[in-house]
Amino acid sequence: MKQPSPLAQARSFLFVPGNRPERFEKAARSGADAVVLDLEDAVPPGDKDAARQAVMEALPGLAAIGTALVVRINALAPAADPADLRALATVAAQGAPVGVMLPKAESAAQVQAVLATMGAAVPVLPLIESAAGWQALPAIAAAPGVLRLVVGHIDFMADTGLQCGEDEAELAPLRFAVAMATRLNALAPAVDGVTVAIHDDARLRLDTQRALRFGFGAKLCIHPRQVAVVHEALAPSAEEADWARRVLAADAQAGGAAVQVDGRMVDLPVVLQARRLLARVRDTAN
Question: Considering just the CA atoms, what is the radius of gyration of the chain in Å?
């Protein structure tokens, strides 16, 4: 049976600029579940070619470390040369497992363009970061090859003119739409955007917990120190895990009939909630 992509279970996606090859191995050994080698926003226009070459040369060695790898390519504009994909396809054909993060995703055709070059097996993670991406979300989420949806809220605000407060309540409709598209298409849990305050652990924890409330399962990180905080925030508390285990034990003993735990009725929806929570315990064991 085909094994699921490790990118489907990743909790943290750590960005590293493609033009900083001296940081690649450090990122891969940082404890992040996945490393995103970035050819897009983190790389100045004049460094694009050199960054592409550096990433392609490093991929085989990084793959041997065992951390899941993703390359964020440059946006697939209609007339753009897909040089990133062509180079990546060559490296992937040599056995380096890698996913593709697709920025400015605004159509299912863009996902298809990735598969046409990379092959049907490549996991694609579209970034929803524009009004056009939000409008095309149902088609993007349903496109073959899509593994997880990713929220790029900084670019989304720039594109739409939204001005968010600290709690980003204005972006709740976007996160809800991504959560529903994820569920409707049975995708791996969505990935939330970055927290730009690198040294504000409290803000990062709150942002990660908000993502979890929307059903997201991972977060983009821009510094290695953010990884441990994200993993901690995504992990259930000991009390939550104990409750979930008692719910499943009571359900098993009742043979699927309704039963009470802590004075509250337990039926199938509660059992499913307990199972999802315990799955997070396993996912956050490292």
Answer: 20
